[in-house]
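Pasting two entries for a bug report.
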Amino acid sequence: MIQLFVDRDEELLFLEEKFNSGGPELVVIYGRRRVGKTELVAKFMKGKSSVYFLADRRPERDLLLELRAKMAQVLQDESFAKLEVKGWLELFEEFLKWWKGGRVIIALDEFPTLIEGNKAIPSIFQKIWDLKLKNSQAMLILLGSSVGMMETEVLGYRSPLYGRRTGQWKLLPIRFQYLREFFPKYSEEDLVRVYGCLGGVPAYLLKFNPNIPFWANVAARFLRRGEFLYGEAEFLLREELREPRFYSAILKAVALGASSFGEIANFTGLEKSLLSKYLDVLEELGWMERLYPIGEGLKPRRALYCIADPYMAFWFRYIFPNKSDLELGNIEPVMERVKGDYDAYLGTVFEQLFRENLWHLAMKGLLPIHPKSVGRWWFRDQEIDAVALDEAQPSAAFFEVKWSILKKTEAKRILQTLERKAQDFRWRKENRREYLGLLAKKVHGKEELSKQGYIILELKDLLKKN
């Protein structure tokens, strides 16, 4: 049986510890849309006295009355639902007067939506905490999908709520190692293919049918009008942004290969000042990532951009440019174009996946160093796919990543080229210890190359949980 709730043990343990502390708790849970915040909190609250409230864009008075009704349910007293209250502070005050059951959880989902409707909400909830909840047995959980707003309006030092939280957790997508639990029949290569279009977002992973082949899922869930994954990107753009057409142009440019600021400007035709602002917004949303050559500090002129979210990268590379065909139902020609290009696209995905998992690989004892920083490196026409640095030793591990099956001679040639490129990497060059490595789907002659001092990793190593 497929588990629909995976890779959240650490988060649940964190919430349980806060619940069992016995004292008042103000916990902030945030992360991108569809990552599973609500499901996490719902599982945590199961069997506990709790109030769950989802904010939306209705008038504030309507939201206040709905929360009052939710509180009446947990109080098991319908007369509370008829109680006249003037605002949020009075509602919480009355609820605590009526509540006699000890520990209670109050979870407010999409808290940034409340702030959008009333900029005074952070100040109001500061008063609720300071005057009422701080001296109670309540556990207040504030959830939000707008990462930027949660980090500024709730967690930021200028926020009235700053310093009040007793815990916070940024919920991240499911790790690659756990995709097997969604797709137990898929091959290792197919799991990378899944990651390349869905990432680790639970809501997206659950849209694929694990009992049909990968490409059948792509045709059924991505390429058909009306399907969730077909329209999700445009929904997110409309929901999060005021000028979605400009952001679409930027995301399309990067998805199709533009990576420097100049290349994106040329592709989109946007003025540089506007482009800079739009890129900042996309970074804040977590859709775009700005990269710098590792070991060289933050040099703006050397920065490159990539789409951080695999779903958005896939959608803007394959769905957005083919909308005309897909709107007419011409799925087959689009499918052929996607199939013909997908392995090339997965080369970049495989690199990103490896960099994300370098710390995990080190913890499993598959690396000779414990990296403090991980990234890419490039200089002029040279590039190294992944570099791991341990400043304390100091030591550096350099890796090439190939989405292919390599013969021993091919692997040896790649490693020799890597050794030459590593000589141009200037970080602590005089006294560092160096390691050279390679990741591929499979490497023939792995044992022999390992005996020669190389770090040889294969796709199956990325899927090891322990």
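Entry 2 (this is the one that rendered wrong in the viewer):
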Amino acid sequence: MTKQIPEAWSRSSDALLSDLEVDATAGLSDTEVMKRQRECGLNQLTAAPRRAAISVLLYQFRSITVILLLAAGFLAFVFADYAEGTAILAVIVINAMLGFFTELRAVRSMEALSEFTRTECTVLRSGKAVTVTAEEVVPGDIVILDAGDLVPADIRLLTVAKLTANESTLTGESLPVHKDLQILSADTSMLERSNMLFKGSSITRGSGTGLVIGTGSDTEFGKIFEQVSEAKPQQTPLEKRLNRLAAHLASVIGVIAVVIAVAGIFAGRELYLAIEVAIALSVAAIPEGLAIVATIALARGMWRLAKRNALITRLSAVETLGATSVILTDKTGTLTENCMAVSRVLLPETAIDFNVPGNRLPASPSAARRVVDDAAGPQLDALFRATVLCSNASLERPTGTVPNGIGDPTEVALLVAAGDRNIWRDVEAKKMPELREDPFDPDTRRMATLHRADAGFRVFVKGAPESVIPCCTTVHMADGTCRLDEQQRRSWLQRADELGNDGLRTLAVAQKKVAAAKTDLYDELELIGIIGLQDPARTGVGRAIDRCHRAGITVVMVTGDHASTARNIAVATGIVSASAGSDRFRSGPDVDALCDGSQDEALLETRVFSRVTPEQKLRLIHWYQQRGHVVAMTGDGVNDAPALKKADIGVAMGLRGTAVAKEAAAMILQDDEFNTIVTAVAFGRAIFENIRKFVIYLLSCNSSEVLVIGLATMVGGPLPLLPLQILFLNFVTDVFPALALGVGEGSPRLMQQPPRAATERLLMPRHWRRIALHGVVIALVVLAAMALALYLLEYDYKHSVSVAFLTLALAQMWHVFNMRDARNRPFDNEITRNPWIWVALCICLICVFAAIYVPFLSNILALAAPGLHGWALILLMSLLPLIVAPLIWPLTESDAASIALE
């Protein structure tokens, strides 16, 4: 016994019942069910193992920076420098703990998928209908289904009665799918398997019975589950850049440390002193605060985005949106309301735009009602009166503006639109009670109801225009009834086709009066009008997409829905213009053909992909990523989960999104507003620029420390700074100003610029020039201060080292003001206006004074108070780099291309 019968849609029900050894009238026995559960397992998805906390903790020590610090600490202990070794280890522990608590996140995608199985269903067991949990369902079970039921497994239908299913979370198609018993070909795609029901979908109308042919991971739902687990999240651009930077620093540090150590030995220094110098160089070169500051800057970005309804589930994803160059967006529920709504009404003498959202009623009369009250109001009321009576849906009158509708979404939308005209089904049903119904037939695509009226009987009909209009012999006019000839019928059908070409679902509505209850319901009807419905675009989406375009971001719709519907929404939201050519629109099969043929130009020009499967979404994401794009993928359904995880950043809808989509995504829009994505992009761009600023700040400070030690060693002078002093500076005077830089506000100009190239490094050549020149100036100033203290002020070695230490500390603090944009004013810019900069400098000053005047710290750091003359020398020398900075900038921004990139 297997958990799935292959190609069940292409085989007869009798053959399937025989293969599964089950009687359609009795179902399985309890004994057989137990046997199959042992063989096939429960009907559930295996939850992904939660990542162990110890694994997350150990991951924090994989950083090259941490490894180098561990080596430095180990050497300090080897040479009995316990204070220094302990301090280095303390920095490592603090950094690891911060990363551990900020990045610890359990993998919950599989758990969310498993939640879908925790439902109940009705099955036939030993000839009786019993209720069981979905986990207990086995292959061969006969499931009894009614409207509102969740489908517990993959099912081959045995009987149907006007059965429709909502498969939007699985396929992306917004309209309910009509089901039948027709045997299909083996190569029929999942989107077209009308004789099947799939796990994760729901019954919207009708009833039926079916044979379970797939359970657990062997369902179509289970295949998506496997794709979610196999689609590995991509390393974000920021992570890649920081890793590359750390690797480069490690190689440079290793070479410099070895060269300086060997040079010291040849210069006659003791082995211990040479190794101590190497340790000092390693500590000086490593930006210990880089990981901490980057983490805190991103965490604050998460907090600020959360206040704007964008919940970030992966820390580094805050920056990733800032680099996004392509957004692949789902349609249903992302760009649209995910509910049908009446959009346009065609009456004999006029056409009315009926702008009533399908999921709520306005608090005041709509524009449509005000326009038609004096003209076509009676005709419009007659049309909606017919739709509410010829219906199986129900709508509770709302106490506020949100009604509670039950039934087919199309019929609910008609009831909502009628409610806007103050026409209610319960009121009309009392006036004209229903006597019988000819239910909707997928073959004829129409339905009719017969009602008792005051002077006889009334028939109301609605359905596809091509099914209803040929049955009409008259048309309902404002001043009476007129004959409808063949030419007029063709004209009405043409008007309906025009609505269909605009992506609307069309329904023709007709009526007639009859004298007897026994009558042909579809003979000699009176046409009232045609209704066009659509899943409307969400409010504000058009403005958000326009902002994306102005920011250089390409927005591409990828949906499982029909081409005409997708095109209509794409035009309505501004993804494409109304005059866009056919090269902007492709279907699912085109994706496979174009990707296989590497037809880059054709795919790059496409803005709408319709009838796309989950596998094809993954192919598109991979295709864009292979060509250097940073891809964001939006979605809300189960079918979107693999793509959300595969994308550089997955964006799920928080209100309408399934649990699976939310858990697979890196960002959740808590308000479901597409505009929130644009806000996140702006934050991401600002955060990246801030990170670039504080990396430049940290590296220029640390390079100055390397040069101070390196130059002093090369000339055979005394060591200007001790390793523990450097560690103190790196952890205090580096971290706080860098952190203040990391939380600054971004420039509004960022959203008028194209996104960064995916291959752009965190630090470009112009940035390295800036780092090197600033480092040289600060290093020369510190060495000059120490030389003056030794030879001019005649300080001893300890006091001279203290002068060098304080000069470096203050020079690095003032250096934060050099991080302003060179085009801004020196005293009024993004740095001086940042209040956190001033807070950081105050903290640094307190720490520096504590290092000198608190005995415990001064003893550990081997520092002494420099005296009045020493302080005067320190202040003068520490301000020189700030004065020299404007002279350095032209050297780092000399080429026009660099200035343009700034």
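Dev reply: Rendering is fixed now. As a check, the viewer should reflect this: The CA atoms of residues 275 and 502 lie 77 Å apart.
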